[in-house]
Amino acid sequence: MVSGLFLVVAIIVLYPVLMLLYGSVRSSAPGDAGFFTLQNYFDAYGDRETYRLFLNTFFIVGAVTLLSAVVAIFFAWVVTRTDTPYRGVITLFMIVPFFIPSILEVFAWALLLSPRTGLINVFLSWLLDLQEPPFNIYSLGGLIWTWTITSAPTKFLLIVGAFRAMDSSLEEAALTSGSSHAGAFARITLPLLAPAILAASLLTFVRGMESFELPVILGLPAGIFVFTNKIYEVLEFGFPPRYGLATALAVTLFLMTAMMIFVQRRILRERSFAIISGKGYRPMTISLGRWRYVILAICAVYFLIATVLPLSQLVLGSFFEVFGIYDWQALTLHHFRTIFHDPQVWQSIKNSFLLASAAALLTMLLSFGVAYVVTKTSFALRKTLDLISWVPWTVPGLVLSLGMLWAHIRLAYPFEIYGTLWILLIAFITNGIPLGVRLANGGLAQISDELEESAWVHGATWICAFRTITLKLMAPVFFAGTLILFVTFMRALGPVILLYGHGTELLSVTIFHLWQRGEPGTVCALSIVLLAIFLIALGAARLMGATGVHDQR
Amino acid sequence: MNGKWFAALLFILLWVCVIFSIFSASAISAEAGAKARAEGRVVLYSYPGRENVEPVVKEFERQHPGIKVQVSYGKGSQLQEKIRSEARAGRPMTDVHSCGWNGLYQFGLEGYLEKYQSPQQNYFDPATVDKSGLTLSHSAHIYGLVINTRWVGAEESPRSWSELADPKWKGKLAIQDPRPGGGGFSWFVQMLTDANLGENYLRKMVQQKIFFGRTNDLVHSLLARGEYFVHIAGTEERATTEAPRSAPVKFLKPRDGAFYTRIGLGLVKNAPHPNATKLYIDFVLSEAGPKTVADTGYLPLRKGVPSVLGPDALQGAKLAVLQTEEGIKREPEFAKKLKEIFFP
To answer: Which tens digit of pLDDT belongs to each residue from B40-82?
Structure first.
């Protein structure tokens, strides 16, 4: 059984990766006859553009990592170490955007900062009597701004725990010795939290390199390329699509990501996280005096800009005939009627629900299997299994999509799954395994082996002990993991963009295509529907305590 | 046998033949109809948007209960790549593909389309009928200039392609990305092959910092909301019949030559529902089809079907160079020139 699990995981994870490598040295499109060649790599590395991709990717993603770290550290500090009022609400406002699909936020910002018709530009031009719009979303600045705003909540979630758990006795010692609050923060707090911040930064850097929606929606029109939107451009705008070049670039991105994750693991392995001592402690709260209201105002302005404005834009855009023309005569429900009467939209909503639910459940089942084998058994290949479960972490969604295309386009009966929901299901499971295994590992690590062992001593069978102890204790983790994966799959675009077929379109794909077809009103209306689904899911999760939002407060 | 008897016999024979052929035709048609109903659906990959296709589909489904038409919309090149992938995977899912004629014809030459001669083609001008049988053109649309009337007043409106090279339009022009084909590429070729405009004009246009949108619809949407002032190679129907009431857009025929392209249908090779598809194609080409298409603003190519854009809609417009045999032959050369001029 354990060997079977090993085999299943190895096949679904390694097969597309190996096929991606194979595809990068083929002369043809996936499924076509061709020959082995290194021409794709010569094309990729013989072009100066590729080296610009390296620079752009590192510069843009680096800038986003740095800026989102500043935002996340500020808010983590505010909610854990200061006496700013409404810290619970601030935490909640910081967490909610994490559950909003970034593609919707990107659309909202693309509308808000449209050069001539974006609300912010129109308002500022009117206020300051400007001849030219002050902002352009389709620029390097626009790209970095939107990317930072959309990635800050994730980073906040990654570091706020470390801020909360830090023993503040060292800070107190610094203050007692005459240091100012700022000095103590700079010389004590930050260095102590550096490993946690570094870990979160490396993770957001890797996620940034893999990001697909943002560079495609904002980068392509601006002519700003990183690896992901270049791969997409080569496939979509190549006439015919240049699969060989795209695959060679995809392999390069895969290797870069793998290298970054290797570096991340090495750094984290070598650093000490000893910021939580064994003795009792209480987190120190800095009294900000009157400044606490200034800090509260800064937080309020940030939320207004980062969350309220984009969401308001989506709502506003959904009720007007033509986006940007806010004439009362042009108020309409047409966009909602369109989505409710369009069978393709309904099909994609159904597909997304079905697939995200099934994939989340299956991923968690598989992940628990892997985590159990790795942490609780003496299976000879358990370390290899653990390593294999990490591999998809290094494969960006779009790259996985391309690998799956190479892997599955020409399989013989009964494995002809191209164009069906099955290929999307496998893509999601492959994409979700690293997260699922990490979550399951975390849960299982908290359950001492002694619990099961004592059950065996008292005569329980392995199955009985597993069912009555491990399964019961793991149920909340399983539920939380399933929910997180469900939300992840509902909004995923990169892993499926090259794999969907007629009748298997997903909601994210439909929204993306509506945007490309120039239907912002319909996109806004559909976004509202999608947001409602997410808020319901978030509400359900909060009711069951699955998101940890309650704890964070 | 005298002449009278001979004539009568001939008449009876002819009459029997006529009756027999009518019965056999209706029997064949009934058989085809039954097969089509048994298949139950048609999968259409369409470049023309929802506004143009939905009314036709609705009318077809009303006339042929039991057959559903499922439509996937997208860019022509993108949809064709999907069909190629389906064929490579050995899982054809598409029955019929609709896009600009030249793209469709080349797709047919690649071997992805099945030949089909619809009896309805007899009612079309022979010049618009593809003799190879790979494509079936049903309508056309005119490309010209679409302006945003909020930004561009009547007096300052550009009247010709050449006026767009004026520096005052810098940063205010948008066009469909010409690289994957479509209206943007048709415009490029039209300008390149124009004796008065040519490469010099296009090089001047490079200085205008034109915005390249992924689809024609996207560019039109950006124009309607006021992001750009002029949509180069915008279509007339998008600016007239399809535009919402509040959209401040207007179509202008450039003095130095509007052009039109034909839109066609192609029966996909190994289509899963061939009989229902042929029924659908026949319907789109029949009198009812073009009438419905014409109501959405497209120019029907079937004889005797009026256009809502008026009887003179095509007057002064030339068939796009890319939609001629010569244009198709020279396409690789044009694509190379495009890269050289706009995307070096």
So the answer is: 999 999 988 888 898 999 999 999 999 999 998 888 888 999 9
Closest approach of chain B CAs to the CA of A206, in angstroms?
28
Per 3-state DSSP, what percentage of chain A is helix, strand, and coil (rounded to 5)? 75, 0, 25
Q: Do the Cβ atoms of B116 and B246 come closer than 8 Å? A: no
Residues of B in contact with A32 (CB under 8 A): 88
Q: Which of A24-33, A62-71, A270-279, B106-115 has the lowest mean pLDDT?
A: A270-279
Contacts of A323 in chain B (CB under 8 A): 221, 225
Instruction: Read off the tokens for A260.
Output: 């970054």
Under a CB-based contact definition with an 8 Å cutoff, are residues A67 and A275 in contact? Answer: no
| Rounded distance between C-alpha atoms, residue A403 and residue A388, angstroms | 16
Contacts of A28 in chain B (CB under 8 A): none
Compute the distance between CA of residue A424 and CA of residue A279 in angstroms, rounded to an integer.
50
What separation in angstroms does the CA of B23 have from each of A36, B17, B26, B29, B201?
59, 10, 5, 10, 62
**From the candidates A220, A236, A346, which should be mutated to test the interface with B, based on the most B CB atoms within 10 A?**
A236
> Is there a contact between A517 and B94 if contact means CB atoms under 8 Å apart?
no
Contacts of A342 in chain B (CB under 8 A): 50
Pairing of strands B230-235, B41-46: unpaired
Binary contact (B93, A416; C-beta < 8 A): no
Residue A480 carries which side chain, given as an amino acid letter? A
Residue A115, classed as helix, strand or coil, is coil
The pair of three-digit structure tokens given for residue A57, joined into one six-digit string: 């990717």
